[in-house]
Amino acid sequence: MRRPAVGACAALALVCGQQGLVRAEDRITRELASYIVSDDAIDGPLAGQRGDPALGQALIAERHRSLCILCHGAPSIAVPLQGTLAPSLAGIGSRLSEAQIRLRIVDMKRLNPDSLMPSYYVVREGVRVAPDWQGKPLLEAAEIEHLVAYLVTLKE
Amino acid sequence: MLRPTASLIAIALLATPVAAQAPLPFEPRSGRDFMAPETQAMQADDASNPGMLWVLQGAELWDRKAGRSNQSCAGCHGEAASMRGVAARYPALDPASGKPIDLAGRINQCRAERQDAPSLARESDEMLALATFVAHQSRGLPIAPPTEPGLDPFRETGRQIFTTRMGQLDLACANCHDDHWQGRLAGSAVTQAHPTAYPIYRLEWQGVGSLQRRMRNCMVGVRAQPFAAGSDELVALELYLMQRAAGMALETPGVRP
Hints:
The complex is a heterodimer of chains A (156) and B (257). By secondary structure, chain A is mainly alpha-helical. In chain A, 37% of the residues lie in helices and 3% in strands. Chain A has a two-stranded antiparallel ribbon. Chain A is globular. The termini of chain A are far apart. Chain B is mainly α and 257 residues long. Chain B has a single domain, classed as Cytochrome c-like domain (Cytochrome Bc1 Complex, Chain D, domain 2). Chain B has ten helices and seven strands. Chain B has helices at residues 3-15, 37-44, 51-63, 73-77, 103-115, 125-136, 152-162, 173-177, 211-221, 232-244; strands spanning 92-94, 99-101, 184-185, 188-189, 200-202, 207-209, 254-256. In chain B, the strands form three sheets. Chain B has a three-stranded mixed β-sheet with strand order 6-5-7. Chain B has a two-stranded antiparallel ribbon with strand order 1-2. Chain B has a two-stranded antiparallel sheet with strand order 3-4. In chain B, α3 (51-63) crosses α6 and α7 crosses α10. Chain B is globular. The A-B interface holds A 63, 67, 69-71, 80-85, 116, 118-119, 124, 126-133, 136, 138 and B 164-171, 175-176, 179-180, 183-187, 190, 219-220, 223-226.
């Protein structure tokens, strides 16, 4: 595909004489690990690396980074801080398989295009994305695997 | 007879072609109704409502001469009571530009054209004090947006912005405020985003801020590049929100968490 090259030239032209080449590099959408969707699930771990449930639990609690509990409840989180815009994640490991949970975090909109839930491992040229977040997925592959590893342990 | 009048108004509203005036999918409820009782009590009692300090400061500025014309607001407008009802119908059409202008914009226009004074930054204490003081004169009055057709395209722009997903989180204002207003985002009530109480004293800010500041906060929340303060886009959003809130009572100065 020649498209990306054209985009890169345009980006270079824009910043030439301003901040130099480094910024132009930053703006080029980073390669995401590829994955295969079968039915409503992604079987293998992203980037081939399984996560650590303890790190996943810690990341869920970092609400300004993972954002999960803005919308969801989770058993490890104090009730007044939990969101109520989405189903609680309590017992999610009994309701969904590891592979199903993975796809729901990676790209919920593949299952429900109108979903409130952001797609965490997708980079779209969205509307007015703030410069700090352009070209970046919400979470990295390893972070998503930590979350998956934690959520499968939430059995009812 | 009241009945025929009421139904005539209803028909007139229904006949308006602009989508921006379509009825809301819910009974309108002020952000105040979602707050903890203590916060509601803080707003209700002027002695404990911190926003009243800005009203007091605004009253002083109203009478203070400013600019090369050495005129005060009171010099042209007289008593504060002359401002009763004004905030309830802003943003309004500015005949000079043919565009809507909000209350802060109008205050700066008076400063520039009548007082020959430098304009005030939107979130400066002075601007917030004047805007809070002026809006406070309409406390209890129903929001009554102007009906000039010239405003309709701008309202429609506001509606479009409100319903367009944006930012890295790819969420529209309407995703939260139309579809999930009854829910809680982490600990916070989402609310229907009515502009009934602005400028507000926000506990999180430890100070008074404008409706535009509140909207820019939500844009930052979805990781979008916020519209610039005073931009056409934010005024269009204000216009649309005021239309959605038509008939609701003004509360300025509101208190919000």
